[in-house]
Amino acid sequence: MDIRELVSLGWKHTSSAFAEELYLKSGVDATRPVTFYGLVNARCNVKCRYCEYWRLAHYPEEMTIEQWHAALLSVKEFVGDFSINFSGGEPFIKPGFIDLLGWCRDNGIKAGVTTNGSALTQANAARVVAAHPFNVNISVDAPSAEVHDYLRGSPGLFDKLSQGIIYLLEERKRQQVEFPITVKPTVNSVNFRHLPALVEWAARLGDLCVSPQPMDRWTPETCNELWIEEADLAELEAVIERLVAMQENGAPILTPEHLLRLMPSHFRGLQAPRSTLPCRVGMRNFFVRSNGDVEVCVMGFPFIGNIKEHSAREIWHSAKAREVRKGTVTCKKLCLITCLSQKTVGNKVGMALKMLNVVR
Question: Are 171 and 228 in contact (CB under 8 A)?
């Protein structure tokens, strides 16, 4: 990642903001997606207490690496230069995934990845850095094995990912490749008190950013054990205030302040405040599922097409996409997971500059 890449992406997001306003005020749909996600698989090798993937009796079909090539070229033909974040499941257990990162590098596609860190061996870290990733996000829920491994259902994972981060930092320096490494905790009743310590742990480990996001209700554990209930929300608010103070003092916490402050509202089940509405994900997001299905929102809206059957351009301009876009604009759900949280262009620029500053 360098300043030229950020300027290019910043211009795209600024243009998108104008198109969004035009759509909201006149109904004229000149929107094009600017935020891309690729879920390469649903399979995972850890058993997070707030996730269903590892419990699935049947897994969805997975596109081959070659089919991902075709899908990504279709997106590039439509929007030009773009960045995409790959995740899963656990993307690194998909055969050929690191090769896909290298293919993206060779074809001018900025590709990042979100991982649980279990596969970041020294050899894999070297290959990932050689692929010049746009970013690497690592799920870390606490600064200790006791809490992290309990939440992730995988004894020994914290030590593995900690060493994996060190490998990435060493390879980033050795190969002289600049990209941000971000620690992403999923906030819940077990770990929220540890968030300030996690920021401090990340600072001790190296040049890392931190981006907390709250969990949602999905599994029995999220409903019965991990949800932050009203009795603890005053303490959560105090933790959030401490994070905001750390952020103001230069800590590389990426989550914008207004989204941090909305976490208690999320756990109270409140609707989105007027300041974050209308929802814009339908005008900017393009999720590609492992089987090629495309959606703009993961919160219950229908798929808008399949990238194996139609081009990205055809999918975005389809009647189904236009119908779903209208629905997302009127949605008032408060969404704080990274891919759905409502950020302004200013928020995005600030986050990008903070990441760039940390890397350097």
Answer: no
Structure tokens, 40: 């390469």
Task: Show the tokens assigned to 145.
Answer: 């094995």
Identify residue 14 by its one-letter amino acid code: T
Given a contact cutoff of 8 angstroms between Cβ atoms, the answer to whether 336 and 213 are in contact is yes
Residue corresponding to tokens 């509405």: 277
pLDDT computed for residue 109 by the predictor: 97
Q: Which two tokens stand for residue 271?
A: 């609707």
Is-contact 21 13, C-beta < 8 A? no
Chain position carrying tokens 């690592």: 138
* Residue 261 near residue 240, CB atoms below 8 Å: yes
Q: Please determine, for residue 127, whether its predicted confidence score (pLDDT) is greater than 80.
A: yes
Per the CB < 8 A criterion, the answer to whether 110 and 134 are in contact is yes
What does the pLDDT look like over 32-59, one tens digit per residue?
999 999 999 999 999 999 999 999 989 9
Nearest to 253 by CA among 187, 321, 333, 335: 187
- pLDDT at position 13 is 77
Q: What would the pLDDT profile of 195-210 be if each residue is shown by its tens digit?
A: 999 999 999 999 999 9
Whether the Cβ atoms of residue 315 and residue 304 lie closer than 8 Å to each other: yes
Written as six digits, the tokens of 328 are 């997302």
Q: Which residue, chain included where needed, has tokens 């992290």?
A: 148
Q: Where are the alpha helices (DSSP H) in the chain?
A: 3-26, 65-79, 97-106, 122-130, 145-152, 157-175, 195-205, 220-221, 230-248, 257-261, 263-268, 312-316, 319-329, 345-359
The whole-angstrom distance between residue 141's C-alpha and the CA centroid of its chain comes to 15
